[in-house]
């Protein structure tokens, strides 16, 4: 397996979630949530000494908020894998929320990801995404020299690499920002649990590369880019080339643009990430957020993570955490890269 490093700035939006308080010892520690069944997604954070030092008196509240955000994914997905995340913090406001993750590519390129998605399909959305007219098309939708990537934990979820306990990425927060860690979001503060959920989802693979260069690999694309459409059968500029104009008009779609589920960030006007949502309804996956609002992990967010390779637990009644956090290798030679993203306030 070939390794290369890559770092890039990125923004995020705030969202909210609350969970039961958990007493956590400060300092460098690897902490898991409550014991879970053997066939379950397990997210294990390692909180750094800097996290405790920089959050100070708020460190326990911040840790519990991060754990509550992680629990939304553990509750809604059943992949029998471990996702291991370093949780860090820095002083000041130069960082709002930031994520870093190793990226993997495979010798058979798009075919490896497509085959893995087909084998991993378990829900109706999975079937639609890989079926006729689905967003994960039968053949590579991009021509010319390019490289498809998945995050490290995403590769494990798809069965492209074996599960392990090695680090899958980092989330980092700026402690100089005003945060609310649980309960109603105080005026002038930002929903930390939602921010954490946003960053965790990026480590899990919810990122758009928009034909960037990663290490020596030009024209890089992520699996998330496959679900970006501007209309039926029309893949967006984030996949096919440079900005189509002054503004982009891209949407998240599972069925090849026939159903446009959520408006995505106008990256032509704003820059930043192509796979975050546009402003509007408060949502943890939005690019920007106002203060004083709760940003939940929505049903569309869970559908997004589902088609990115995670096995969603679909129940007959909606899970509370679906709507509000606050209510609670295939054959081929592999290569890996590194992706860093940063989020800020609006």
What features would you describe in this structure?
It contains 10 helices and 16 strands. With about 350 residues, the protein is α/β, with parallel strands linked by helices. The chain has one domain (about 1-345). The strands form 3 sheets. Strands 1, 2, 3, 4, 5, 6, 7, 10, 11 and 16 form a 10-stranded mixed beta sheet that branches. Strands 13-12-14-15 form a 4-stranded antiparallel beta sheet. A two-stranded parallel ribbon has the order 8-9. Strand 10 and strand 11 (about 215-220) form a beta hairpin. Helix 2 (about 60-75) packs across helix 6. The protein starts with a strand and ends with a strand.
| Separation, N- and C-terminal Cα atoms | 40 Å
Residues in helices, as a percent range: 10-25%
Low-confidence stretches: 1-38, 317-341
**How much is the average pLDDT?**
83
Q: What is the domain tally?
A: 1
Report the biggest beta sheet as strand number plus sense, adding barrel if it closes.
10 strands, mixed
Number of strands: 16
The SSE order reads EEEHHEEHHEHEEEHEEEEHEEHHHE
* β-strand amount: 15-25%
Tally of alpha and pi helices: 10
